[in-house]
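Listing S7. Sequence submitted for prediction.
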Amino acid sequence: MEYKFRAWDKIHKDIKEVALINWIENTVLLWNKRGNVRITIKRHFDDIELMQYTGRKDVNYTEIYAGDKLSFSTFDYNGADTHYTGYVVWSGTRFMIWNSLDNEYYGTQFP
């Protein structure tokens, strides 16, 4: 599995690509894009929310990260399709889709 992260920057209120995680200093270097130029900015763990890549992509080939909101459907043999919207959450050993970030588990998981 490929290990990648992005981060929600609580200061700028946007998602940025993670360049480096310093677990000793509890800081992260983030890529900040300005036009064609990428600069790094340093943030403390308190100022960001790390989002780990699940190793999966959606139907548009966009990478899916923990914290992403997804819509999906389940189908049964009786033709009763059920549509859900949920959040990708890391739960111990795997990524799962939950009704909310801290509430109900839908029963769908990433291997």
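Caption to Listing S7: primary sequence and predicted structure tokens for the chain studied. The chain has no helices and ten strands. The mean pLDDT is 85.
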